[in-house]
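Predict the 3D structure for this chain.
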Amino acid sequence: MNDKWEHLILSRMIDKYERTSAYVNGEMPKNRIILNFYGKNKSDFPEYDIEDFNVKTAINEAVCNLADEIFIFYEWMKGQDNHILSRAWLNFEKTDEVYKFLNRKPKKDVISSVVKELSDEIKRVNTDWIIQFYSDASAFLKSHMKFGGLLSENKYQREELYKLLAFIDGNNYSALKERVFSEKCFGDSKYFENNVKSVLLSILRRYVSSDLNDNELLKFVGINKYPEQLEMCGKIIVASNDMSVLKNGFCIYPGDLDEVKWSVDRAVSKIITIENRANYFSYLEGMKTPDEIVVFHGGQYSPAKKKLFELLSKAMPENCEWYHWGDIDFGGFSMLLRLRKEIRPSIIPYRMNSRELECYENYTQAFSNEYGEKLLRLSEEALLEDCRDCLDYMIRHKIKLEQEAMLT
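Done. Predicted structure below.
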C-alpha cells in the first residue's frame, strides 16, 4: 500500500470535513466531502500530475486501495477509466476508522482537550485580563471548532504561554528587566524575546490597551527596560525623613518599597494620582496644597506602581480622600475603573466631567463609531455609575479630551 499518498488523500478529506458547519454543529454533512483531482473544476490535489507517469500511477493505486477499504468512493474521468482520476469523496460511515488509520484525533476531541486546559488555567490565576483571554479563547474554540490567532494549535507553544501568564500572575509586583524576567520564567534569558514576546504583546493590546506602546505594555506586567521610577510629592515619611521638604517631589525605585519604613503624615487630607506628566508637574507648581500627596500615575500602571498604590491606600489617614485626574477618554476612565476595582472603590474623578468637555470644546477630538462602542460598554460598569453623565455626553457628541488641554 502506498501509505504516503493514502495518508495525504485522507488527511485532505478530513481537513475539509472538519471545516464544515455540519461538523461544528455535530450534524451529518448534507453534501459530499469531495477532492477534485482533474477536470473542469479546480484541483484539490495539485500533486496529481498526469504528465508524471510514476506520480499519477502511485496516486491512482492509493485511491483504489482506499476504495477497497471502503474509506472513499471515486470516479474516473469520462473515457479515462483506470487512467485519469476525476474525483473522490469520503464515506461518512467510515470516519471513525479513517481517524484510526491516520492515527489522528478528531478535531472535536482536540478542542475538548484544549478547553479543559483553559479551564484548568483559569483556576490557577487571579488576574482579570488573563482570565478574560482564557475565557474568550475557550468560547471561540467551542463555537468555531478551530483555533484563533492568539492561541496556538501546538501543544508545546500553548504550555509555554500558560507558563508565561501564570508567572506574570504570580510575580508579586516585582519589576524585572526583560532578560531577568525571561531567566526567572523560562530558565533562558533570551527565550521570552525570541519565542513569546510578540504573542504576549498581542494579548495585552487586545485585553489591556490598544493605545500603549510595546514598552508601556510590558511595564504593565512588570517587565522593564530600565528600573521604574515611582514619582510622588507630599507629606510622606521615609526612613524618619519628611519628604515634603522636596517641593518638586521625589522618586522611589520598586526594589526599595519593601526595604525602607515609610508612612503618610496624619495631616494629609487628599491624595491625587495624575495620569499625564505635564499635568503632574503643573499641579505641583501651581495647585498643590501642603495637606496633599500627589502621585504621577502615568498610563496603565505596572505591578510595582500597584504595590505603591496599595501601600498608600493602607497608610491613608481616616478622613483622607483619594482623587484621580486622567484624560476624559476611554483610557482615562478605564484607569479610574481599575483603581476602584483594585485599590479603593471610593476614588473620586478630578476634572473628568462634561463641564470640562464644554469648557474646552475647541480642544476636543472626534472619535470613531468603534471607539464609541468601547465607551458604551465601559459606561455600563457599575463602578462608573457616577461617571455615566460624562460618558453619555462623550458618546452623544463623539468627542474626547486629553488632560494636557486643560493646561491652556
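The first helix runs from residue 3 to 18.
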